[in-house]
Amino acid sequence: MMPSDEELDCLFRAWTAPQSPDTLERRIRQAYRDRTGSSRVWSRWIPRFSPAAGLFAGIAAGAVVFLLVIAQAFPQSLSQSLAGLSGGTFPFTVDSEEIAYQADGSSVVVEYFTSAGGGLILSSEFPGDPLRTAQQRILDPLNLILFRIAAPVRERQVARRYAIPGFAKRVAELERTCTLGYPWTVAGNVTILNYPTTMTQKEWMEDGKPVRFTQWSAPDLRCATLKSTTEKTFEGKLRLAFEQRALKVTMNGRTQGYQR
Q1: How many CB atoms lie within 10 A of CB 97?
Q2: Burial of 186 by CB count in 10 Å (0-12 exposed, 13-18 middle, 19+ buried)?
Q3: What does the angle CA 188 – CA 101 – CA 222 come to, to the nearest 5 degrees?
Q4: Omega into 183 within 30° of 0, i.e. cis?
Q5: Closest to 89 measured CA to CA, from 120, 67, 68, 63
Q6: Do the beta carbons of residue 178 and residue 192 sit within 8 Å?
Q7: 121: closest CA among 100, 93, 150?
Q8: pLDDT tens digits, one per residue of 29-44
Q9: Three-state SS letters, the chain
Q10: Whether the Cβ atoms of residue 197 and residue 178 lie closer than 8 Å to each other
Q11: pLDDT in tens, 44-60
């Protein structure tokens, strides 16, 4: 069975790059200025092109507004187009919500989204932000089209990875247990939406304070994440900051689990 992008991402997530220093952005900006010279050269040319630049900006803004109006006026048509593009491509989809928690314990849903078996986000909705939702309705079909176009490249990458000694065995173990090894630790097994999941955790320091990330992955769903939490330190204690949880699993067009 060919592993999904989500599984491969999980496998390689253990190898993380070191955090960039705070001065990196400042050094890059200074190096760019040193190579390109003073910005005053551009200031002499900008007025000459300002009419054309203004016209282009107006056309671009008009196009964006037009697409947003189309997305807002015909959301069902866009949803049907997206369903047609994704039909038959993914064995299952997961409907989830993302919740942000404040220091006082209050919470708000910041996003609803549907993801495919390989971890691709098929559609998103942002409660209380209709403009961002309309923008996303335009981007979702484009993302899926690009995902399909890039399929041959992904397949070649997977083939090269499988040529690495021991890689196939490691992927098989990952699919069976949904465990990643260090720095992840197994914290238990929980059933979510009627699917057994493996609960894994990892901790790190952020601004000198502990952060803990926990995820629940389902082996029967190719290690898809049905729940995840991010806990940050407030007043010396770890408290829930973000939560992602699955609301529904749709397998071959039929709902297998539902939670609300």
Answers
A1: 18
A2: middle
A3: 40
A4: yes
A5: 120
A6: no
A7: 93
A8: 555 555 444 434 333 4
A9: CCCCHHHHHHHHCCCCCCCCCCCHHHHHHHHHHHHHCCCHHHHHHHHHHHHHHHHHHHHHHHHHHHHHHHHHHCHHHHHHHHHHHHCCCCCEEEEEEEEEECCCCCEEEEEEEEEECCCCEEEEECCCCHHHHHHHHHHHHHHHHHHHHCHHHHHHHHHHHHCCCCHHHHHHHHHHHCCCCCCCEEEEEEEECCEEEEEEEEEEEECCEEEEEEEEEEHHHCCEEEEEEEEEEECCEEEEEEEEEEEEEEECCEEEEECC
A10: yes
A11: 433 444 454 455 455 54
Q: Name the residue with tokens 């300002």.
A: 50
Amino acid at 87: G
What are the structure tokens assigned to 193, written together?
A: 């939406």
What is the CB-side half-sphere exposure of residue 247 using CA atoms within 13 A? Answer: 13
pLDDT bracket for residue 6 (50, 70, 90):
low
Here the tokens at position 26 are 């400042």
Q: What residues does 110 pair with on adjacent strands?
A: none
